[in-house]
């Protein structure tokens, strides 16, 4: 019977045309809801760490910070400037770096100089408020030994030096 059925010619034309209504559906509310689900909030302010021991050389500083939330962060914006009582435009210039990690080593700094640092977190939704500001200090330059003033005898030696730093140095360590 199947063979007979397949041999027959079947007319697939519809006797009447379907009557479809043209409707315009407003999906703007649904689209807004879908977008709000996928939107991530701007991150919270990071917390900058105080200067760690051995985190400085005469010309560099290692700055670290953390984020105490589960915020999504794409990168951080680290800002810094030298701390100065004087108002020199070049010395007071703010510097900004984009950083992927929660730490950064800043180079080409002045020896024995205080720098003020603050950091913000960024993601697709925006930028966080800045962290509190932290002051870091570069290590002093090594002193210059005054070789013409060196004196010695059997049980003692006199060594004189001078600091090349503008800011006062707290102490010196003499090694023999």
Task: List strands and helices in order, with pairings.
Elements: H1 2-7, H2 28-38, E1 47-48, E2 61-66, E3 75-82, E4 95-99, E5 103-106, E6 114-123, E7 126-127, E8 134-137, E9 144-145, E10 151-152, E11 157-158, E12 161-162
Antiparallel strand pairs: 1-2, 2-5, 3-4, 3-6, 6-7, 6-8, 9-12, 10-11
Feature tags:
5-stranded antiparallel β-sheet; FSD2 protein; 10% helix; 3-stranded antiparallel β-sheet; FN3_dom; E3_ligase_FN3/SPRY; 176 residues; 28% strand; mainly beta; Immunoglobulin-like; rod-shaped
Concise description?
By secondary structure, this protein is mainly β.
Structural summary, described in words:
This protein has 176 residues and is mainly β. The chain has a domain at 47-138: Immunoglobulin-like (Sandwich), CATH 2.60.40. It contains 2 helices and 12 strands; from the N terminus they run H-H-E-E-E-E-E-E-E-E-E-E-E-E. The chain has helices spanning 2-7, 28-38, and strands spanning 47-48, 61-66, 75-82, 95-99, 103-106, 114-123, 126-127, 134-137, 144-145, 151-152, 157-158, 161-162. The strands form 4 sheets. Strands 3, 4, 6, 7 and 8 form a 5-stranded antiparallel beta sheet that branches. A 3-stranded antiparallel beta sheet has the order 1-2-5, with no helix packed on it. The protein has a two-stranded antiparallel sheet with strand order 9-12. The protein is rod-shaped. It starts with a helix and ends in a 14-residue tail after the last strand. The mean pLDDT is 85.
């Amino acid at each position: 019977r199947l063979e007979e059925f397949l041999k027959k010619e079947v007319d697939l034309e519809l006797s009447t045309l379907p009557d479809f209504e043209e409707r315009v559906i407003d999906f703007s509310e649904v689209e807004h809801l879908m977008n709000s689900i996928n939107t991530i909030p701007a991150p919270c302010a990071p917390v900058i760490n105080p200067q760690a021991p051995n985190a400085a050389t005469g010309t560099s500083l290692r700055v670290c910070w953390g984020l105490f939330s589960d915020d999504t962060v794409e990168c951080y914006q680290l800002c810094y400037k030298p701390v100065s009582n004087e108002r020199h435009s070049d010395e007071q210039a703010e510097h900004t770096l984009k950083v992927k990690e929660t730490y950064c080593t800043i180079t080409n700094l002045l020896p024995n100089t205080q720098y003020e640092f603050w950091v913000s977190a960024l993601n697709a939704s925006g930028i966080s408020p800045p962290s509190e500001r932290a002051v870091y200090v570069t290590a002093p330059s090594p002193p210059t030994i005054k070789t013409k003033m060196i004196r010695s005898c059997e049980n003692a030696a006199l060594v004189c030096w001078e600091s090349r730093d503008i800011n006062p140095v707290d102490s010196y360590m003499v090694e023999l």
